[in-house]
Design goal:
274 residues; mainly alpha; MetI-like fold; 11 helices; 70% helix; transmembrane helix
Amino acid sequence: MTLFLLRMRPAVAASALLLAAVVAIAIIGPALAPYNPYEIQHLKVNQPSSPQHWLGTDEFGRDLLSRLLIGIRPTVMVAMGATVIAAAFGTFLGIVGAYGPRLVSFGIMRSVDILLAFPPILLALLAVGFWQSGVVSLMAVIGVVYTPHFARIAQSSTLQVMQQEYVQAERSMGASPLRIVFRAILPNILSPLMVQATLTIAAAILLESGLSFLGLGIVPPEPSWGQMIGTARSYLSINPMYLVWPALCLAMTVLAINIIGDYLRDLLDPRLRQ
């Protein structure tokens, strides 16, 4: 593992280590938290960094470091779950849109184009307004919002693969459509879908944070980075670091994911490998 990281570009290696740390903290965060992230202490409201509270406290005297460590989990869960949902349904729709009957393909792709015409945040706001807030709801909503992105990539990639000789050979030998899809098409369109998945994780983290910032995401008192940023803006003049720490964590995580996505794109595309 160490040798593999040394062969990477420094920025990519640092991003990989940061993401590994984020995932590890999302799994074992409660064990690392020095204090109970839900414990209210009225005598320690909005305190700056100190030996007792390394990153300070919030408006209820709760330890910021503990809430940051706990707040990683819902953000990562929503981003990963939404990406899996979007990738599964989007890939299915894209393949059907390229390989299915013409009328079905037309209906699917025009529906995808309509959804792509709206900003993701607008679609998410419309959907979240009718659903109960929570991790599962955010997974479903954000997954549906980013499904068209995977569908468009899968459809265009499938159209290119279908022109290749090995697909024509499968057809000439009388292979079933399912065999052609799973043996000839799907393995050869995974590269762009993997790159899109990394970008979608970053976009889903930002979208979840935006919804939580507006009070439509993770339900308090469970913390999330976006929710903490939304609350901290009211105390910016009193405790500016309350806003800086979650914003910095969010920015560094999204930046690391985007760097990994660019690296995967260069690695999986032979035209960009040099």
